[in-house]
Design brief:
The protein is of the alpha/beta class and 894 residues long. Helices cover 44% and strands 17% of the residues. β20 and β21 form a beta hairpin. α12 packs across α17 and α20 runs parallel beside α22. It binds one RNA strand of 75 nucleotides through β8, β12, α8, α12 and α19.
RNA sequence: GGGCGCGUAGCUCAGUGGGAGAGCACCACAUUGACACUGUGGGGGUCAGAAGUUCAAUCCUUCUCGCGCCCACCA
């Protein structure tokens, strides 16, 4: 089919083309697939963005690669599908909602659970889809018909089933443990959601005098306000300074409470004072020390992050605090103070009491919530936990047996390290937005875990003769439901065709910061509940940094929103290609440089103009992908086809190996510099006329198919304007290298033409021949019949051709490359002499270098035969070329 | 403390055990059958430093220095 000669605009306008073609794809339904066991599956589960999320540059790298691979495998004919969805993002969403309520003067408690949740759903309907619009604008083509939400009814059923099964298997339990408390979000957090921020603070040295009137000791601490909760001081058992105190008591200042000095070898004698205060209820290390020594664990900071009267024993049933001793009175002035206020007050009072031995500036790390960035308070609380050991073990084994592969490989060690040191997972959260625990309590606090309330009541009646129950108000950690993602979205626990053919997924793509926050949990839960790893390969993309090498973040103000800052300027194609160009497999950071997007945008225009040139040819275009018989292909045709084939091989291998930067480089290199700059120019020679329309059309068609996964829009717009088979490039076939003829020898000869043209252009610049003037060039008479060569030189170098008799120098019967090398510029003898002289000097030094190398006996003896042979061939070439230049110079003198 | 990545042209980065590359920026020239969102030519680098392995090191090994990230109970 011939597209005729449409009037194409001079500039390519992504803003017009991209939305139009995306809409076209949606209407054609090309992103939707059903399981087809006849074809190999290629399935990627989209890491579900938060419903509060906005597109950021991380999506530009991570999500673009998913789109690229899905499009690529679809073109290969695979049963390819990219499964999208969203995460309810419990704490993040609740934070947004609470803030919105506050602006209206309302509170969560004031609204009540039911009304709050109604509002949350309404919010999700209204704003939760914003990120999808960004994804569409970026050209992402997931199977929107299969979109899932972690709180969909079906997915929630899966969550409940997993919880109930794990509980019944003894892997979920309730207990009082030290947890990470976020006083701002008013909820616990898992270890994985806690980050460490560096801060400048002080190291305070506190003097605890001995009970027996002796000297006592000095402890060093960064948190003096916790000293109310101290129950011991520990020292290293070998530490001579303190050995005499072990077993004796020291007195806490201000509150005048005696605590024992104990030996524990976790202490490093060399740090601080070598004596450590132990506050088991508010520090993870101290908690472990407390457990080892059977110490009491008084809580002195409450859920609001304020100092509270000491709670010596955790009252599980009521979660009430009961101050029981005389300490309460002495602590009274501090009770109710925020942690920071309390610290200042305590330090001042200790100083006044002579108990502050020293204060030195100190840089340390504080745990903060990865969501709210509030400083975490470790405290004791009654929560629900998942026992990790028996889940982690199979996940480690699966990796070690090779059932799971990381790209790059080294991230497997990150995965292993995370699983080896896993502590039990605190899964209960005190927010309302999320999956409420399927847990009920009797009035006597007996626990019932059931799939729904009806079942819970039935169980209660059977066991206790009454169905008087209250439900646990807590919800599950967001990552509990996302841990099921690769199978819950396929319909599990139902045995659906999707689950049968599409699980395990082929690839999971994510960034390294959530390898054990998320990836390891999917593996553990997938193995436990489906019996197989959820994906075969985990591809870890680099993190995006700004050009100064700082991590992109909203708080730093250096985050780039691709929707407002890149897509309007460069189009989705330019944004995608620009980002992917910067991705390198082994690099763990991508220092984003917008110049690549600009280059990519100009590339689209360049290709667009190559299309305009092609479709405007007088002779018109033949049908899609039809090449003339080989004997009618010119040297230039043979060269571009050979290069095309090489490019397709490179790009194919690159996609298969997650080398997106390599693929993007190869496309740009070929499309711009090989195809536009050389081949398109070469077709302007008369001798190209018979074949050029077919070859241009063939090469462009093949090229845009290879580029389609990365730049879906400009590739399709070009493809639609060329003769093509099928309705859309999205479902066109991936270029088959077997259908691209290659002619290595002729390609080599054309490369010699290119080299010669570059030399001639160089001479033109040197001799200041104006571009519009043609320069005079002589070709060996033996090339006279080679119109492909002679006309290419005439066209590309803008030369006026004469011939010279090459019978004398013996190149007449040489290879085509040799004769092409004999083409020479004509100028006045002074200019030529200068040029020949410079060329001779260059060649002489090359010959000398090569001769010296070959004269080195150990080189000839020890280097491989190939290397030595290549060096000899190189030397021969240099010598011949040197000879030719010397002859030319001599002839000039004569 | 442990682990990882990175130091190549002014900037951002490719690259290879055997003659140092791209884009951008810079300089000069140019409107040749698509393209000024263009073309052609040019200047610019002791490949962080040192030692070792090798016939040969920018590339492999070790160490040093610098930048960045992750993990860990130095209070």
């Amino acid at each position: 089919m011939n597209t005729g000669r449409p009037e194409l605009p001079k500039n390519y306008d992504p803003a017009e083309v991209e939305p139009r073609l995306y809409e076209r794809s949606l209407e054609a339904g090309v992103f939707h697939e059903n399981p087809d066991p006849a074809r190999p599956p290629f399935i990627i589960s989209m890491p579900p963005p938060n419903i509060t999320g906005r597109a950021h540059l991380g999506h530009g790298s991570t999500y673009t690669t998913m789109d690229v691979l899905t499009r690529y495998h679809r073109m290969l004919g695979d049963n390819a599908d990219w499964l999208p969805g969203q995460d309810h993002a419990a704490i993040a969403t609740e934070t947004v909602l609470v803030r919105a309520l506050a602006e209206e003067g309302q509170t969560r408690a004031g609204l009540g659970r039911e009304a709050f949740l109604a509002r949350a759903w309404q919010w999700r309907e209204q704003y939760g889809g914003a990120i999808n619009e960004s994804f569409e604008r970026l050209g992402f083509g997931p199977d929107w018909e299969r979109e899932r939400f972690t709180m969909d009814a079906k997915l929630s059923e899966a969550v409940v089933k997993v919880f109930v099964d794990l509980y019944n298997d003894g892997l979920i339990y309730r207990g009082t443990r030290l947890v990470n408390w976020d006083p701002k979000a008013q909820s616990t957090l898992s270890d994985a959601e806690v980050e460490n921020d560096e801060i400048d603070t002080s190291l305070w040295h506190l003097r605890y005098r001995a009970e027996d009137g002796g000297e006592g000791l000095v402890v060093a601490t960064t948190r003096p306000e916790t000293f109310f909760g101290d129950v011991a001081v520990v020292v290293h058992s070998d530490d001579e300074r303190y050995r005499h105190l072990i077993g004796k008591n020291v007195i806490l200042p201000l509150v005048e409470r005696p605590i024992p000095v104990l030996a524990d070898d976790v202490v490093e004698a060399g740090f601080g004072t070598g004596a450590v205060k132990v506050t088991p209820a508010h520090d993870a290390t101290d908690y472990e020390i407390g457990q080892r020594h059977g110490l009491p664990m008084p809580t002195v900071i409450d859920f609001a992050g304020r100092i509270s009267a000491p709670l010596w024993r955790y009252d599980e049933a009521a979660e009430k605090r009961a101050p029981i001793d005389a300490q309460a009175a002495r602590m009274a002035p501090y009770v109710g103070l925020e942690r920071d206020e309390a610290r200042a007050r305590v330090v001042a009072d200790l100083r006044a009491a002579g108990a502050l031995a020293r204060e030195e500036p100190y840089r340390t790390k504080v745990p903060v919530s990865s969501r709210s960035h509030a400083v975490i308070e470790p405290l004791l609380s009654l929560q629900w936990f998942v026992a990790m050991e028996s889940l982690a073990k199979p996940a480690l084994e699966a990796y070690r047996k090779g059932e799971l592969r990381f790209v790059p490989e080294r991230f497997g060690r990150t995965y292993e390290a995370g699983l080896e040191t896993l502590r039990d997972w605190n899964v209960s959260r005190q927010v309302w937005w999320g999956h409420q625990l399927p847990v009920w309590y009797t009035p006597a606090d007996d626990v019932i875990v059931a799939h729904d309330e009806e079942e819970a009541r039935r169980m209660a009646r059977e066991r206790y003769g009454s169905d008087d129950l209250r439900r646990d108000p807590d919800t599950l950690d967001t990552w509990f439901s996302s841990g099921l993602w690769p199978f819950s979205i396929l319909g599990w626990p139902e045995q659906t065709p999707e689950l049968a053919h599409w699980y395990p997924n082929q690839v999971m793509i994510t960034s390294r910061d959530i390898i054990f926050l998320w990836v390891s949990r999917m593996v553990m839960l997938g193995l436990r509940f489906v019996g197989k790893v959820p994906f075969e390969t985990v591809f870890v993309t680099p993190l995006v940094f700004d050009i100064q090498g700082r991590k992109m973040s909203k708080s730093l103000g250096n985050a780039i929103d691709p929707m407002t800052e890149l897509v309007p300027k460069y189009g989705a194609d330019g944004t995608r290609l620009g980002i992917l160009r910067q991705m390198r497999l082994e690099s763990q950071e991508l220092r984003f440089d917008e110049r690549y997007c600009d280059e990519a945008k100009r590339f689209a225009t360049k290709l667009w103009n190559a299309l305009r040139y092609t479709v405007a040819l007088d002779e018109g275009l033949p049908g899609a992908n039809v090449l003339p018989p080989h004997e009618r292909l010119t040297l230039a045709d043979r060269w571009i086809l050979t290069e095309l084939r090489r490019m397709v091989e490179t790009v194919t291998n690159a996609y298969d190996g997650f080398e997106f930067g390599v693929a993007a480089d190869a496309l740009l290199q070929f499309g711009w510099y090989t195809f536009c700059d050389w081949y398109v120019e070469a077709t302007k020679a008369p001798s190209q006329r018979d074949s050029r329309a077919a070859v241009l059309s063939f090469v462009l068609n093949t090229f845009v198919r290879a580029m389609h996964p990365i730049a879906p829009f400009v590739s399709e717009e070009i493809w639609l304007n060329l003769p093509h088979d099928g309705a859309t490039i999205v479902t066109a076939s991936w270029p088959d290298v077997a259908e691209i003829p290659a002619f290595p020898e002729d390609a080599g000869a054309f490369r010699a033409v290119i080299e010669k043209v570059e030399q001639l252009r160089n001479a033109r610049a040197e001799w200041a021949i104006a571009p519009k003037e043609s320069m005079r060039v002589e070709v060996p008479a033996s090339l006279a019949g080679e119109s492909g060569v002679v006309e290419a030189i005439a066209t590309l170098a803008r030369a006026e051709i004469a011939t010279y008799d090459d019978a004398r120098d013996g190149t007449r019967d040489g290879a085509l490359r040799e004769r092409i090398a004999g083409i020479r510029a004509v100028a006045d003898s002074a200019k030529l002499r200068e040029r020949y002289a410079r060329e001779i000097a260059r060649l002489e030094s090359e010959v000398a270098r090569s001769e010296k190398k070959l004269a080195n006996e150990s080189f000839v003896a020890r280097a491989s035969a190939d290397v030595v042979g290549a060096e000899r061939a190189k030397l021969d070439g240099y010598r011949r070329e040197l000879q030719r230049n010397q002859d030319a110079l001599a002839a000039l003198a004569a």
